[in-house]
Amino acid sequence: MSSERGPGSMNGLRDQANRAIALPAEDFARMPAAEVQKLLGALVVRQGELETQVEALRRDQAELEESRKQSVDLFDFAPVGYFNVDRRGFILSVNITGCDMVGISRAKLVNEQFPSLVEPQYHEALHSYLKEIAETGQRLSTEVEMHCGDDRVFHAQLQTVLTFEKSNLVYRISVADITERKRAEKALQESEQRYRDLADLLPEIVFESDAQGRITYANKEGLVAFSLTPDDIARGISVFNFVFPGYLAFARQRFGRVLEQEDIGPEEYLLQTRDGTTFAAVVHSAPIQRAGQVVGIRGIVLDITQRKQIEQTLRESELRFRSILDSMLEGCLLLDFNWRYTYANEAVARQGRLTREQIIGRTPQEVLPGIEGQEIYARMKESMEKRVPQELETEVVYPDGARRWFDIHIEPVPEGILILYVNITTSKLARQV
C-alpha cells in the first residue's frame, strides 16, 4: 500500500481523521454529514485492509517459524556433527549430533576451544588447516583424531567452509566419524602386507600392472630376476619391456584378453632381462578388479629354463634310444596301460609279418585277432597287471593260419610293458627234425 500523503493514501486518511478529531465540538458538529460518512467509510475499508495484511503477516511469521524449526531440526539431527567456530577457535554453536559424538553437552561445548577436542598430535596440522582456509576461502578437508568426554578416541574427517556473521569470521566445520572406514582401511593394508610378505617368500616371480601395462608391484624374486628396484617401478616401467620382441604382438593381444576377463590359461613366452638375457617362462595372469572395474592384471611368472633343458635332454635321449632300438635285430614293441602299441622298431617287419605302421596305435586284438586265446596274451597281461618280467618261447598263430615261433622277453616299464622278440621258427623246426 502507498505511504504517500495523497487523499486516498493511508497517511492522507490518517491526516484527515486527525484534523477532524482536533476540531472543536461545535466545528465538528458543523461538518457535512456526507463528508463525515465518507471519511468513516474510507477508514473502515482501510481497517479491513490492515486486518488482512496483519493476518497475512501472521501466517508468514508462522511459516517462517516452522521453517526455522525445520532448519534447526535438520541442523541438530544431521548425520554429521556441525561446529561453528570463531577465528580464535571458540565454539559458537554445535548441533546435537556433534554433542553426541564427543559425549559432551551443548552447554559445556559452547565457548569451549574446538582444538581441545582434537588429539594434541594434530594441533599443529589443525592450525595450518584453518589458516589455509582463512587465507584462500576454499572449502578444504582433513582427517584428525578426536577424543570424547569418556576418553574414547575416534577418527574424524573435517570439512570446513569460511563464512562471515556480522562481519566476524566463522568456521563452519562438519565432523564425520570415519572410525569404521579407518578400521577397514587398516585391515585392507594388513591384508595387502600379508599378501606381499607371502609373495616375497615365493621362488616364482609375482607382479601387478595397471591397465596400460605399467608395473605397479613386483615381489623380491621379480626385482632380482629383471634387475629392478622399487624406484624403477615408481618411475614407471612397462611389462612389455621384458618380453622378447618376437613375442610382443602375442603378449599384447593376450594382455587385452585378460583385461576383458577372458580365462586364457597359462602361456609360454620368451622373456628378457634388462641386460638382454632371455629365458623361457610360463605366465599365469588374471584381472585385478576394484569397485567392479578391471584396473590391471596380476600374474605369476615361472622360469622354465631348466624344464626346457630337461625336455631337450629327454628328446635327445629318446632319439638316441629309438636309434638304438631301431638298429636292434630283435623286434621291439611298447604297449601302454590302455593296451595300445605306442612304439614299434624297424625290426618288427623282419621278425614278423606286420609293419610298424600296421601296429602303432592299435590294440593286440586289432593287430592279431584271436591273440587273447594264446599263451603270449596271458603272459603280457600278467606282466602288465603284476609288474613282473616274462620269458617264453611260444608259437603265434596268425589269422590266416600261418604259424611262427618266437623267443619273447617282456619287461614292465613306466609306460606299460616292453616286448622284445626274435623269430626262431627256422631253428625250432630244425631242432624238431
What is the number of strand segments?
15
How would a crystallographer describe the biggest sheet?
A: 5 strands, antiparallel
SS strand fraction = 25-35%
Helix content: 40-55%
Oligomer: single chain
**Can you name the CATH architecture of the largest domain?**
2-Layer Sandwich
Walk me through this protein's architecture.
The protein has helices at 10-22, 25-29, 33-76, 96-102, 106-109, 123-136, 179-201, 220-225, 230-235, 248-259, 305-327, 348-351, 364-367, 375-386, 425-432; strands spanning 81-86, 91-94, 140-147, 153-165, 168-177, 205-210, 215-218, 267-272, 278-290, 293-303, 331-336, 341-344, 390-397, 403-413, 416-423. The longest helix has 44 residues, at 33-76. The model has no long low-confidence stretch (mean pLDDT 85). It has 4 domains: 10-72; 77-177, Beta-Lactamase, CATH 3.30.450.20; 191-303, Beta-Lactamase (2-Layer Sandwich), CATH 3.30.450.20; 315-432, PAS domain (Beta-Lactamase, 2-Layer Sandwich). The termini are far apart. By secondary structure, the chain is an alpha+beta fold. A hairpin with a 2-residue loop joins strand 14 and strand 15 (416-423). Helices cover 43% and strands 27% of the residues. Helix 1 packs across helix 3. The protein has a 5-stranded antiparallel β-sheet with strand order 2-1-5-4-3, with helices on both faces. Strands 7-6-10-9-8 form a 5-stranded antiparallel β-sheet. A 5-stranded antiparallel β-sheet has the order 12-11-15-14-13, sandwiched between helices.
